[in-house]
Please model this.
Amino acid sequence: MSDFAAQRARMVEHQLRERGIEDERVLAAMGEVPREEFVGERRREMAYADAALPIGSEQTISQPWIVAAILQALELQGEETVLEIGTGSGYSTCLLGRLSEHVVSVERHAGLARLAAEHLRTCRAQNVELMVGDGSRGVPARAPFDAIAVHAAAPAAPPALLEQLADGGRMVVPVADGSEEMLTVLRRRGNEFETVALAPCRFVPLIGAEGF
Ligand code: SAH
Model:
């Protein structure tokens, strides 16, 4: 086993399984996707640290546990069309691609989106589509989405995204309330949204029409 594969296996056991992640598809995907390919040459040795890491343009790749918690809350079975806001390095995009049928991912930094496209080619992710722009408005032309993952903190669940969520669909979004941030799961039932607080968290801000 390569050193990175061994580190990945330890991450899955100690950072994820032992801390309550139990969706076997999520654990398997995170045991396979090479996180070291997404963090940049200088940080490869730290790829499996129990922490967020800088990826340039003042942005970060989230801590593995947070990525897993988001993926688990989306309850993906493999048939879904997923919208992701905040492609960043492309790591979470690659995981979403493995867990669903198709992913549309939006990033506002063109430079990061270019790097993410390279990383995703290295990992042969073929069912992911990258777009550059303000994702806080979603992608109405492609709605509805069975699941939506937002990787940047918003003042509230963006209304445009709620509208683009399919009936029965799940959205995960970090909601910032003053200095507190809560990773929040919303499930659509008709025009009602069941809301569950998942865990305190810290994300970069969602910058845009329905963000900050
Ligand atoms: N999921 C990423 C981490 C994303 S960090 C990974 O696995 O690497 C959050 C990202 O959201 C940043 O790259 C930031 O540029 C982006 N972002 C912030 N506001 C945005 C917006 N309105 N639309 C799209 N992307 C946005």
